Amino acid sequence: MGGGVMAAVKEFTLPDLGEGLTEAEIVQWLVEVGEVVAVDQPVVEVETAKAVVEVPCPYGGVVTARFGEQGDTLAVGRPLVTVAVGADPAADAGSGGGSGDGGSGSGGGSGSGGEGGGDEPEGSGNVLVGYGTQAAVARRRGRVRAVSAAVGHVTAAGGGPVRGDLAHPDGGPVAVISPLVRRLAREKGLDLRSLAGSGPDGLILRSDVDRALGAVGADPAADPAAAAVGGGTAGAAARSAARPPVDGEVRVPLRGIRGAVAEKLARSRREIPDATCWVDADATGLLAARAAMNAAAGDGGTRISVLALMARVVTAALARHPELNATVDTARGEIVRLPAVHLGFAAQTDRGLVVPVVRDAQARTTAELSAEMGRLTEAARTGALTPAELTGGTFTLNNYGVFGVDGSTPILNHPEAGMLGVGRIAAKPWVHQGELAVRQVVQLSFTFDHRVCDGGTAGGFLRFVADCVEDPAVLLASV
């Protein structure tokens, strides 16, 4: 068991990542059990409903356990890693033990803070969004357990690793990773160990719980809490549960960014009475203006994108129609008109659709808009967007023309009240100055929350946008 060096085992739980996020999926571990980590060193990369982020650990020492494996979903507050602060890494490395992933419940000791060691390190206080070691010490006055430097790895009875999120204190591991499924089963008094999961490797899914509850005469849709767990898709889940599995069907867990998008779109469709109007516009003048701007900027200047020009048009249109830069406070029955335009724009990535937000778009020049949109687009492609860069939008610009389509009737980005859609710009016959000519034509669509305005306001907004596209000089009156 090594020498007499004593170490305090600190449990680091998944922190509050901000913006109301309650869970995250493990993308990859950045440290191994037995590895020495420094204060504020990233230990895991997780994907939330908003972004992929690295989570730094506020403790320095030897990693004694990891909780969860790649693909597992952990709820905020669940154990992430345990670190032996003050341990001798050489002694720990020689102690042997299991493969290292794991631990159940409290792991090898808990507590961040400690009532038993006033002189122990408290960490940096320099961690992610919404948490810090000093706050953690005050919030989680857990116990500190003195252990030998040779901290054993936590393993299952058979010698294999136990994933922290799957460990069950009473009867071994339970193949369920969703905290929502656990909550539903707990509220209904259902023992998850009695279920055979239909997911990959026997994973227990929500549909398995629904089927089990139906078999005993329970109706999960009748319970408001259970309905809330379903994220507004209880009816679809019930229909899916009622249909027997079909050979060859593939089931993909609706989680992470895809799950968040699905929930937000479903909520928007349920709550917002939207309407859409559209118009074709001759974009030849807009493209000519862009070419002139880029020529004037020279080789060292910022290149102006079509999307940035459309963003400038949108901010000018919202200045004329401020009632569209708004949201509806349903709890108080009020329309809230917002002072700043935080412009979101849709970006398709390998991880799914994301909507980065340009803060205070109305205060930026066209060149600044182009630079910021370019930066956010690249960050979206690499998965480097932060939660703050993906939230707080007040209006969305949707450039679906990049997919080669002309038009769309998009679903509003809840709780926003408006979205401008831009189709592809294509050469088409067009009557120009009384003669038929081939021009660069684009279809514009505007989807709006009918609670914040009537059709006249929406039509006026879209007509102004189209006028600016056809004759960019119209913008000069608004700049």
From TrEMBL:
The keyword tRNA-binding does not apply. Residues 176-213 form the Peripheral subunit-binding (PSBD) domain. GO terms for cellular component: cytoplasm. Pfam families: 2-oxoacid_dh, Biotin_lipoyl, E3_binding. Residues 9-84 form the Lipoyl-binding domain. It is an enzyme of class 2 (transferase). Residues 91-128 are annotated as: Disordered. GO terms for molecular function: acetyltransferase activity; lipoic acid binding. It comes from the Bacteria. Coiled coil: none annotated. Its EC number is 2.3.1.-. Residues 94-116 have a biased composition (Gly residues). Its cofactor is (R)-lipoate. Keywords: Acyltransferase, Lipoyl, Transferase. Belongs to the 2-oxoacid dehydrogenase family. This is Dihydrolipoamide acetyltransferase component of pyruvate dehydrogenase complex. It comes from Actinacidiphila reveromycinica.
